[in-house]
Amino acid sequence: MNRSTAARSHAGEHTTAGPPPGGQQTGGGRLNSVLRHDLPASLVVFLIAIPLSLGIAAATGAPLIAGLVAAVVGGILAGALSGAPLQVSGPAAGLTVIVAGVIADFGWAATAAITVGAGLLQILLAVTRVGRLALSLSPSVVHGMLAGIGITIAAGQFNVMLGGASASSVLANLAAIPGNLISLHSGSLLIGAATVAILLAWPRIPRAKVVPAPLVAVVAATALGSLFGPDLARVDLPEDPIGDIVLPQLPQGGMVSIAVAIVTVALVASVESVLSAVAVDKLHNGPRANLDRELVAQGVGNTVSGALGGLPITGVIVRSSTNVAAGARSRASTMLHGLWILVFVLLLGGVLELIPMAALAGVLFVTGVRLVNGGHMRQLLRHGEFASYVVTVLGVVTLGLVEGVLLGIGVTVLGALVKLTDSSVRVDRDEDDHADWRVVVRGSLAFLRVGRLVRELRQIPLGQHVVLELHVDFMDHAAFEAVDDWRSGYERLGGRVDVDEVHDSWYSRAVADRLGRRKTPPSPLPRWFAPWSHWQAQHTAPRTPAAMLRGMDEFQRRAAPLVRPFLEELAAQGQRPGQLFLTCADSRVVPNMITSSGPGDLFCVRNIGNLVPRYDAAGPEGDASVGAAIEFAVDVLEVPTIVVCGHSDCGAMKAVLAGSSEPESRLGSWLRHAAPSLDRFRGRTDAHDHTDLPDVERLSVANVLQQLENLHSYPSVRRAVERGELKLVGMYFDISAARVYLVDAERGELSPVRVPASTATPATATPATGSPGNGTSVNGMVTAG
């Protein structure tokens, strides 16, 4: 994988063997790609855009030509500037309700001017980079807004299919249905029903997706409409489309209402465009969308569309996904689809006037119903966010889009506040006899949960010894006062309260008037991880027997329940360690910590100086203990690796270097096994002698090399190495830097631990042991062989 490919993969992009959509190509290659991919795709999108643009214009009450103008501008201009090259822009169903309301309040000419203002506001949002905040809007609110819009569209267009007209609200449309059923226009109902049936059935026909379902439905409905004569409502375009375009006029009315209309159109159009661009990114393997640039394109497009008497535009997912599915590779497809609409309007407008309005109503009815997405509902139910979705839908349907969205945001914020301040309180008798009662509090303690906490605390009988165990990542002033008041009151009445803070020291800091403002960042480390932990220093002296007893109690109460299932499995199947780990008895070297391993992974042998007496050492200088461990690990446990780990600031190596141990003492007798290491250290003159290290550290490295050599004196080790079943690995641990190095057995070099990407194993896989010369796996660390 080269650097550019790796960078794209890291950024979340997918790569393909061929040129990616929107990628850089030569002039001839670009033209060939446009002719092969973008031109056919543009024709497919054009055929979908025509009925949708007309239907959306009809649903808003705008002139039909306004929908086509918006489609042309969205295709050609917004497509040329777009930050998401494969996204198609044009009039959108999501803006239908908003635009219909603006037209009802201000008239069409003023609505065009409001569209211009919304476009300028979008450009400002993009320049200030505020537009990307649209991604922070909760999906429950966005999907609820779209579902509410979909219900509104479907209710209005159902009346059109009955031969009536669409009203401005869902309630008005529902009230109009009985009257439209009484004066039913059978031709409109038949055409609308046929359109809906074709839209639903066509995609199910094998290989029929080559021709877009909306095109088939509108063509079939138009042919059916020719049987009903002139009394059937049809598309009505001006004879002179260019001359009859209504140019914008300044709206009349209060400045506040005008500003609200501009902001509403701008924000909803921006949110829909940004979300559509993010969704389109998931459909192709090309460059990711530049959201700021996309917002500029939408702003310029709306400014020009409004100035030319067109509807507001947004990026639309239906046409964009069709564009990708049709094989588009660049923005040329989007721009060409706008050009085809322009040519069609100027030269073939009479063909459009054959289309029955009921056919367009059927297309929009299905579009509206599909905005109520059952899949989104199931996801929101699983994530506990369905309430804000329902509130948003009901608000949009009954009150209006802005009101519904604000209600949904309010419910979402309230729900997030409840989740962020979630906590649990458990009151139990203390089974370990540390106290009479133990109260365990977990989560975030904020004012919303204070009442429940106080109720639980007040249930504890008076005059008892209570341990208040706090696993708290946040505590506000209200929670602190509640806990502190209860504690002081309980102790005043003869009880005793010990506050045991596990996750952090929020209560202690509040007592000292040092309460923080931010939640404690999550940490994977248990509090007993290090001997300098706050809890140990607070309750016991670290070097006393009481400290060990407290540590064992901590393990049994908190860690044991977590590791018990794994230990039960290890106990049942027996031990199968991956390494024999030979290291020093120094208390600062913790093998499982520096190798990120756990129970059952390492078969450890620890002694002063991590020494391996030679197999042929006889008499009092020999050592049966280390030898027995080596033979048991190799012959019985069949470990694939033996690791010898030295370390910095080694007391044994200091004693060997200074000759300070008493020769007749047990320590002096043991350290005689390090004499070959000292000879090796004094005799080294090669280029890799680590002259930049202090003498004691150089001796430690030489000692590791000597012990690796001593291991070869054991027959069982030598045979296993010769068969390729065993690898010997040297390690060196720098205590102060908390860094592990590998020791090259031939050159004595120290090298940092690296895991090559090509040989790294997944966390759930068993690490490979490697083969001679190709690397060794030590608890998932692949070392250089």
Automatic annotation (TrEMBL):
Record's function text: Catalyzes the reversible hydration of carbon dioxide to form bicarbonate.
Organism name: Goodfellowiella coeruleoviolacea
GO MF annotation terms: carbonate dehydratase activity; zinc ion binding
Disordered: annotated segments: 1-31, 756-785
Gene3D superfamilies per record: Carbonic anhydrase
Family in the record: Belongs to the beta-class carbonic anhydrase family.
Catalytic activity: hydrogencarbonate + H(+) = CO2 + H2O
GO cellular component terms given for this protein: membrane
InterPro entries (alphabetical): Carbonic_anhydrase, Carbonic_anhydrase_CS, Carbonic_anhydrase_sf, SLC26A/SulP_dom, SLC26A/SulP_fam
GO biological process: carbon utilization; transmembrane transport
Subcellular location: Membrane
Record's protein name: carbonic anhydrase
Cofactor-binding details, from the entry: Binds 1 zinc ion per subunit.
TM ranges: 39-57, 64-86, 106-128, 140-162, 182-203, 210-229, 256-280, 339-366, 386-418
Position of the signal peptide: none
E.C. number: 4.2.1.1
Residue numbers binding Zn(2+): 584, 586, 647, 650
Membrane topology: Multi-pass membrane protein
SLC26A/SulP transporter domain boundaries: 35-387
